[in-house]
Write a structure and sequence with these properties.
Layout: E1 2-10, E2 14-29, E3 35-52, E4 61-78, E5 81-92, E6 96-110, E7 113-124, H1 128-131, E8 144-158, E9 161-179, E10 190-211, E11 214-229, E12 248-258, E13 262-271, E14 284-296, E15 299-306, E16 312-314, E17 324-326, E18 328-335
Length: 337
């Protein structure tokens, strides 16, 4: 369980106080030799007081409750074949009950090699920005839906080399749209669920231990997104307001275990440009470094540098309103007990 309080004030715009109270319970049982069952329940209360001027959200104060339950059973069909069935059931204030099932099959081809596949359904339930904006209301806005199809392979090519690759296809429905008013006037516009779409791509990772004290990891992701209005929708954005993603992500990480209980990590990443007209962002490369000292097994002292290749760079946002991410350095102490 946890309690979280956030107070954010933007002078002349809004003053928001958000309190979250969360409780979760989880239990694991193993009836017989072929079943491994995990189930649980949860409750969350969000109390929000949003006083605004330019960005008007009505009503100002709301208390939103969410109840949830889940169950999952990992079934050993054979020694090397496992089937996982699960579902989550959630009740929220905006859309009542949401059902999110999943099925996953894992086949261990031989020692160190596994092929897996999964199908799952997920939803994004409405937020206050979807339902309570005074100038762009969405009183009938429902959950956005996703059906995800995934196929992957993990292998140990050699004693010091392992890799994984996963392909995915995501089918979206009831995505957020902005529906203009009845012609000839475009106002008042309303939020609705008038768009659908798909995304697909590949994620791959390789890990190589060059020496006992030196490990390298390389990752690459390719992503394609296509969003379009559904029949009857008059949204003209063609998904530009809902998808602003780069197509290529490349990462390279090198970790060193040095003498004197020292650790050195270097992480490089490249993100290609975002071509969305509403959020055009140039591609960028960055480097992070971490130097840590472990004077005792349970104590770690480290210095971390982030975004070291540039003084600042932009990662998202509409032209003219983009906020740059700056270079940063900080120290950290971690004590485990």
């Amino acid at each position: 369980m946890y309690v979280d309080r956030v107070h954010r004030e933007v002078p002349g715009s809004y003053d928001d106080v958000l309190n979250t109270y969360d409780f979760d319970f989880q239990h694991r049982i193993a009836p017989g030799q072929r079943h491994d069952i995990v189930w649980g329940v949860g409750y969350r209360l969000v109390d929000d007081d949003f006083a605004s001027r330019g960005l008007i959200i009505l009503p100002q104060h709301v208390s939103l409750e969410t109840f949830s339950a889940f169950a999952q059973d990992e079934i050993a069909l054979r020694d090397r074949l496992h089937l996982t069935l699960g579902t989550k059931l959630e009740h929220n204030e905006y859309t009542d009950f949401e059902f999110q099932p999943s099925i996953r099959l894992a086949w261990q081809l031989r020692e160190g090699q596994m092929l897996w596949a999964a199908i799952s359904r997920a939803v994004r339930t409405p937020s206050r920005l979807d339902r309570d904006l005074a100038f762009l209301p969405g009183p009938n806005f429902n959950s956005e839906e996703l059906v995800a199809y995934e196929l992957g392979y993990r292998g140990q090519a050699a004693e010091r080399l392992s890799f994984s690759v996963a392909a995915f296809y995501h089918d979206y429905d009831d995505l957020r749209s902005v529906e203009p008013g009845i012609p000839p006037t475009p106002f008042p516009a309303m939020l609705a669920n008038g768009q659908a779409g798909k995304s697909y791509g590949v994620e791959s990772t390789a890990r190589l231990r060059l020496m006992d004290w030196w490990q390298v990891q390389v990752g690459y992701t390719e992503l394609r997104v296509d969003i379009h209005p559904k029949p009857g929708s008059r949204d003209l954005s063609l998904g530009a307001a809902e998808a602003a993603d780069s197509k290529h992500h490349l990462s390279l990480r090198s970790s060193f275990d040095l003498p004197g209980q020292l650790e050195l990590d270097a992480g490089y990443r490249y993100v290609s440009r975002i071509t969305n007209p509403n959020e055009a962002v140039p591609g960028y490369s960055e480097l992070d470094l971490r130097l840590a000292w472990l004077p005792r097994p349970k104590l770690e002292l480290s210095v971390v540098g982030q975004n070291l290749l540039h003084h600042r760079h932009v990662e998202f946002g509409a032209p003219g309103a983009q906020q740059a991410i700056e270079r940063g350095v900080y120290a950290k102490a971690v004590w485990c007990y």
